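Dear U.,

For the methods section draft, I wanted the exact inputs and outputs in one place so we can describe them consistently. I've listed the two proteins in the order they'll appear in the manuscript figures. Please don't edit the token lines directly; just add comments below if something needs changing.

First protein:
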Amino acid sequence: MLNILFVCTHNRCRSILCEAIFNAGGGDSLQAASAGSQPEGLVHPLSLRYLAEAGIRTEGLRSQSWDDLGGFAPDLVVTVCDNAAGESCPLWLGSTPKVHWGLSDPSKVEGDAQAVEAAFKATMSEIQQRLNAVLELPLSRLDADQVADELRRLGAV
């Protein structure tokens, strides 16, 4: 099983969406968690709403610091926002392979409710496509460095 940690500065929207979507669709192949360097403390309510509407479980999702993940040992760290891309990951992550996925932040979209909903659904669709690309890899035959290399090669990042 591949353990993936999704990191976004505030851990309230994009990293939460990734965690939920990857856990919902990853089956026995992977497990996801999310965290932030400066967690907001609350998951964005629209993240929870649109995940639930898509039939994805939201129980247990929380905005948390990577310091709160003592029991989760990631094989791969994926940063999902521009702010998190340059942040130094905590020492306990050591040489864990890191990949950056630039995802648009739907919580920053201004406009009417339809525009905001469309932004959330577009980001969720992009995350689903990236999950599909990960699941197409022969995960049982690759180590985390090779998975990171494959994600870069496939253009999934």
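Second protein (the one for the lower panel):
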Amino acid sequence: MKKKGLIAEFKDFIMRGNVMDMAVGIIVGGAFTAIVTSLNDDILTPILGIFGGTDFSNLTVTLGSSADAPVLYYGSFITAIINFLITALVIFLLIKGLNSLSTKFKKAEEEAAPATKVCPFCKSEIPVEATKCAHCTSDLPTE
């Protein structure tokens, strides 16, 4: 048996479906993060500023009294937490909606495909896959 080269193994790894799906997910996630960040920075923060009078992005603590003392921007951290919570909520709602739709379609498919049929000769209920009636032993026509 011939061993694959490093390049061939890497190509097989990259071309696997789950790696490609992950790459698409990361790209879409990055774009989605930009949308949520804009929602928070451009819409929610100003609205919260009306009620609370606080813009989180400007909250800081200076560690020391000199001009070059380090500054902690904890308001930016609070903004990042809000972005995360909004992102998590929206993803939760999307997945919940998709699961709900999936369940509806599964139920519709199950209801659409009957498990039994009626024998045309004796009118007894028999399994849909049956080729001979268990009640009257008639050969059933194939559909």
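Candidate sentences for the figure legend, describing the second protein: The first helix runs from residue 6 to 15. The mean pLDDT is 82.

Thanks,
Y.
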